[in-house]
UniProtKB/TrEMBL annotation:
It comes from marine sediment metagenome. This is HTH marR-type domain-containing protein.
């Protein structure tokens, strides 16, 4: 597992615009641990709230899904 930046998560979500991912799915796709992924997503939501959008997961109880919201 490697470290990853907020920018790399944003780029991944932008490439997959319109798709929704849980933290676990994002971490698996990006080959990072769940904690690192979650921390970066929380920072993105706090500081760049127009890039990331969230919704409650319909598949997993007590989980959120993340998607790209910004402009292309």
């Amino acid at each position: 597992m490697t470290k990853i930046s907020q920018a790399e998560i944003s780029v991944f979500l932008k490439k997959n615009k319109g798709k929704w991912f849980t933290v676990k799915q994002l971490a698996k796709e990006l080959k990072i641990n769940n904690g690192s992924c979650l921390n970066n997503l929380l920072r993105l939501r706090r500081h760049r709230n127009k890039i990331i959008k969230t919704r409650k997961s319909e598949k997993v109880k007590n989980a959120f899904e993340y998607s790209y919201e910004g402009e292309q």
